[in-house]
Write a structure and sequence with these properties.
Distance between the termini: 23 Å
Largest sheet: none
Order of helices and strands: HHHHHHHHH
Number of strands: 0
Helix content: over 70%
Structural class: mainly alpha
Length: about 210
Amino acid sequence: MPLDQTVGYSFLALFVIIDPVGTAALFVALTRGMTEAQSRRTAFRGVVIAGVILLFFAFGGSALLAALGIGLPAFRIAGGVLLFLLAIDMVFARQTGMRSLTAGESREADASHEISVFPLAIPLIAGPGALTTMVLLMGAAGSDWTGRAAIIAVLALVLAITLLLLLSATRVVRLLGTTGVNVISRVLGILLAALAAQLVLDGFIEALLDR
């Protein structure tokens, strides 16, 4: 894949899956009662921790799959199915464990004063969809270090946008409102569904060619 296509595809995939606007809306609820300084510190820590986790999966994901005997085509298909389920949640604005907190996780988050690791870094930013996408993107780049560097740069850009929106989360949510946030998530969900379908098709084609 040409470098410009790699950059465009990676940005679209990561931006849609991390969903900075939706994450900012949840961040407002999670930091209710915090001072502005505490909220800013939590945002910085959460994004940095999520970045480290995503980088770990970016560079160690392929080795983990190899150790488990899982081929990249199978992971593409499984990842596509996972992302398609996530897209359904986004399109229908459903709050499930795929892209938000379960009831038990919400209670645990409410009882904790430190939310930067859980639930902000994991699973809101570095969730199953984002981790899967990083492994797939780096696997598609293969040994092309220019492509790999471009993917990491795109990840840094998406995380920077996420941090910016977290730092201004209250204003963003006040401006867009619940309806506005849901509309953006629905549009991103449609794009994610198309990306997920393409991953599944690529996985099947690659598996057939390997036979």
